[in-house]
Design goal:
By secondary structure, the protein is mainly α. It has nine helices and no strands. It is a multi-pass membrane protein.
Protein backbone atom coordinates (compact mmCIF):
# COMPACT_ATOMS: atom_id res chain seq x y z
CA UNK A 1 0.00 0.00 0.00
CA UNK A 2 2.82 2.44 0.89
CA UNK A 3 4.63 1.80 -2.41
CA UNK A 4 1.41 2.29 -4.35
CA UNK A 5 0.73 5.57 -2.54
CA UNK A 6 4.31 6.76 -3.13
CA UNK A 7 4.10 5.92 -6.85
CA UNK A 8 0.77 7.73 -7.21
CA UNK A 9 2.23 10.79 -5.50
CA UNK A 10 5.42 10.71 -7.59
CA UNK A 11 3.59 10.38 -10.90
CA UNK A 12 1.34 13.34 -10.16
CA UNK A 13 4.27 15.43 -8.89
CA UNK A 14 6.31 14.78 -12.05
CA UNK A 15 3.66 16.16 -14.38
CA UNK A 16 4.38 19.70 -15.59
CA UNK A 17 2.50 22.49 -13.92
CA UNK A 18 3.04 25.91 -12.36
CA UNK A 19 5.26 24.77 -9.48
CA UNK A 20 7.51 22.62 -11.67
CA UNK A 21 7.77 25.36 -14.28
CA UNK A 22 8.86 27.85 -11.62
CA UNK A 23 11.40 25.39 -10.18
CA UNK A 24 12.93 24.83 -13.63
CA UNK A 25 13.01 28.57 -14.29
CA UNK A 26 14.73 29.17 -10.93
CA UNK A 27 17.29 26.45 -11.67
CA UNK A 28 17.98 27.99 -15.05
CA UNK A 29 18.31 31.49 -13.67
CA UNK A 30 20.30 30.95 -10.49
CA UNK A 31 21.70 27.44 -10.75
CA UNK A 32 20.77 24.34 -8.80
CA UNK A 33 22.44 25.24 -5.50
CA UNK A 34 20.76 28.62 -5.16
CA UNK A 35 17.37 27.28 -6.29
CA UNK A 36 17.30 24.34 -3.84
CA UNK A 37 15.78 26.32 -0.92
CA UNK A 38 12.67 26.71 -3.10
CA UNK A 39 11.97 23.02 -2.46
CA UNK A 40 11.03 23.93 1.13
CA UNK A 41 8.57 26.55 -0.17
CA UNK A 42 7.03 23.90 -2.43
CA UNK A 43 6.82 21.38 0.40
CA UNK A 44 5.24 23.92 2.76
CA UNK A 45 2.72 24.98 0.10
CA UNK A 46 1.71 21.42 -0.68
CA UNK A 47 1.48 20.36 2.97
CA UNK A 48 -0.77 23.30 3.78
CA UNK A 49 -2.93 22.92 0.68
CA UNK A 50 -3.29 19.14 0.81
CA UNK A 51 -4.14 19.31 4.51
CA UNK A 52 -6.78 21.99 3.89
CA UNK A 53 -8.28 20.14 0.92
CA UNK A 54 -8.30 16.89 2.87
CA UNK A 55 -10.08 18.58 5.72
CA UNK A 56 -12.61 20.12 3.32
CA UNK A 57 -13.17 16.88 1.45
CA UNK A 58 -13.78 14.86 4.60
CA UNK A 59 -15.83 17.42 6.52
CA UNK A 60 -17.59 20.21 4.67
CA UNK A 61 -17.34 19.88 0.89
CA UNK A 62 -20.68 18.04 0.63
CA UNK A 63 -22.59 20.94 2.13
CA UNK A 64 -20.59 23.68 0.41
CA UNK A 65 -20.02 22.62 -3.19
CA UNK A 66 -19.11 26.20 -4.15
CA UNK A 67 -15.88 26.17 -2.08
CA UNK A 68 -13.88 23.94 -4.46
CA UNK A 69 -15.13 25.97 -7.44
CA UNK A 70 -14.02 29.26 -5.87
CA UNK A 71 -10.60 27.82 -5.07
CA UNK A 72 -10.23 26.56 -8.65
CA UNK A 73 -11.10 30.01 -10.00
CA UNK A 74 -8.52 31.53 -7.66
CA UNK A 75 -5.94 29.00 -8.90
CA UNK A 76 -6.65 29.89 -12.55
CA UNK A 77 -6.19 33.58 -11.81
CA UNK A 78 -2.95 33.11 -9.91
CA UNK A 79 -1.39 30.84 -12.55
CA UNK A 80 -2.35 33.39 -15.23
CA UNK A 81 -0.71 36.17 -13.20
CA UNK A 82 2.43 34.05 -12.84
CA UNK A 83 2.50 33.57 -16.62
CA UNK A 84 2.29 37.31 -17.21
CA UNK A 85 5.00 38.01 -14.62
CA UNK A 86 7.27 35.39 -16.18
CA UNK A 87 6.74 36.90 -19.65
CA UNK A 88 7.53 40.39 -18.35
CA UNK A 89 10.64 39.09 -16.58
CA UNK A 90 11.84 37.63 -19.88
CA UNK A 91 11.80 41.10 -21.41
CA UNK A 92 14.22 42.48 -18.82
CA UNK A 93 17.83 42.70 -19.86
CA UNK A 94 20.09 40.48 -17.77
CA UNK A 95 17.61 38.30 -15.92
CA UNK A 96 20.45 37.09 -13.74
CA UNK A 97 20.27 40.42 -11.89
CA UNK A 98 16.67 39.91 -10.75
CA UNK A 99 14.97 37.12 -8.86
CA UNK A 100 11.56 36.54 -10.41
CA UNK A 101 11.10 33.20 -8.63
CA UNK A 102 10.92 33.94 -4.91
CA UNK A 103 10.12 31.68 -1.98
CA UNK A 104 6.84 33.53 -1.61
CA UNK A 105 5.77 33.22 -5.25
CA UNK A 106 6.63 29.51 -5.31
CA UNK A 107 4.81 28.91 -2.02
CA UNK A 108 1.65 30.68 -3.25
CA UNK A 109 1.78 28.95 -6.65
CA UNK A 110 2.03 25.60 -4.88
CA UNK A 111 -0.63 26.50 -2.34
CA UNK A 112 -3.04 27.22 -5.21
CA UNK A 113 -1.85 24.32 -7.37
CA UNK A 114 -4.87 22.14 -8.29
CA UNK A 115 -2.71 19.04 -7.87
CA UNK A 116 -3.18 19.46 -4.10
CA UNK A 117 -6.90 18.86 -4.50
CA UNK A 118 -6.16 15.71 -6.50
CA UNK A 119 -3.76 14.49 -3.83
CA UNK A 120 -6.35 15.08 -1.09
CA UNK A 121 -9.36 13.68 -2.93
CA UNK A 122 -7.93 10.90 -5.09
CA UNK A 123 -4.41 9.85 -4.07
CA UNK A 124 -4.29 10.05 -0.27
CA UNK A 125 -6.49 7.69 1.74
CA UNK A 126 -9.43 9.43 3.45
CA UNK A 127 -8.11 8.20 6.81
CA UNK A 128 -5.09 10.50 6.36
CA UNK A 129 -7.36 13.44 7.11
CA UNK A 130 -9.24 11.94 10.03
CA UNK A 131 -6.46 10.33 12.10
CA UNK A 132 -2.97 11.60 12.90
CA UNK A 133 -1.69 8.00 12.81
CA UNK A 134 -2.57 7.87 9.08
CA UNK A 135 -1.75 11.53 8.29
CA UNK A 136 1.92 11.42 9.35
CA UNK A 137 2.90 8.37 7.25
CA UNK A 138 1.04 9.74 4.20
CA UNK A 139 2.77 13.12 4.47
CA UNK A 140 6.12 11.42 5.05
CA UNK A 141 5.67 9.44 1.83
CA UNK A 142 4.65 12.65 0.08
CA UNK A 143 7.84 14.36 1.26
CA UNK A 144 9.96 11.39 0.13
CA UNK A 145 8.42 11.65 -3.34
CA UNK A 146 8.56 15.45 -3.58
CA UNK A 147 12.25 15.93 -2.79
CA UNK A 148 13.73 14.04 -5.78
CA UNK A 149 11.05 15.29 -8.19
CA UNK A 150 11.59 18.94 -7.21
CA UNK A 151 15.35 18.50 -7.43
CA UNK A 152 14.90 16.97 -10.88
CA UNK A 153 12.97 20.00 -12.14
CA UNK A 154 15.60 22.35 -10.71
CA UNK A 155 18.40 20.31 -12.29
CA UNK A 156 16.58 20.35 -15.64
CA UNK A 157 16.43 24.15 -15.52
CA UNK A 158 20.04 24.40 -14.35
CA UNK A 159 21.12 22.13 -17.20
CA UNK A 160 19.32 24.28 -19.74
CA UNK A 161 20.89 27.45 -18.32
CA UNK A 162 24.47 26.20 -18.02
CA UNK A 163 27.36 28.02 -19.59
CA UNK A 164 27.75 31.55 -20.86
CA UNK A 165 24.77 31.17 -23.08
CA UNK A 166 21.82 29.04 -22.20
CA UNK A 167 20.97 26.20 -24.57
CA UNK A 168 17.71 27.96 -25.36
CA UNK A 169 18.66 31.50 -24.37
CA UNK A 170 17.48 33.02 -21.12
CA UNK A 171 14.76 35.15 -22.65
CA UNK A 172 13.42 32.27 -24.72
CA UNK A 173 13.42 29.90 -21.73
CA UNK A 174 11.43 32.38 -19.64
CA UNK A 175 8.98 32.87 -22.48
CA UNK A 176 8.57 29.11 -22.83
CA UNK A 177 7.95 28.90 -19.07
CA UNK A 178 5.41 31.73 -19.34
CA UNK A 179 3.73 29.97 -22.26
CA UNK A 180 3.52 26.68 -20.30
CA UNK A 181 2.03 28.52 -17.31
CA UNK A 182 -0.46 30.25 -19.64
CA UNK A 183 -1.48 26.92 -21.18
CA UNK A 184 -1.91 25.44 -17.73
CA UNK A 185 -4.13 28.38 -16.70
CA UNK A 186 -6.16 27.92 -19.88
CA UNK A 187 -6.51 24.18 -19.25
CA UNK A 188 -7.67 24.89 -15.69
CA UNK A 189 -10.17 27.48 -16.93
CA UNK A 190 -11.54 25.04 -19.50
CA UNK A 191 -11.86 22.34 -16.85
CA UNK A 192 -14.11 24.71 -14.89
CA UNK A 193 -16.53 24.89 -17.82
CA UNK A 194 -16.83 21.14 -18.26
Amino acid sequence: MALQLWLGIAVLLITPGPTNTLLAAAGMQSGARRAMPLIMAELAGYLASISAWGWLVTRIADGFAWVPLCLRILSVGYVAILAVRMWRASAQAGLAHGAPVSMRSLFVATLLNPKAMLFASAIFPAAAFTALAAYLPAMSLFTLALLPVALGWIMLGAGLGRGRRSVLGTQRMYRIAAFVLGLFALWLALSLIQ
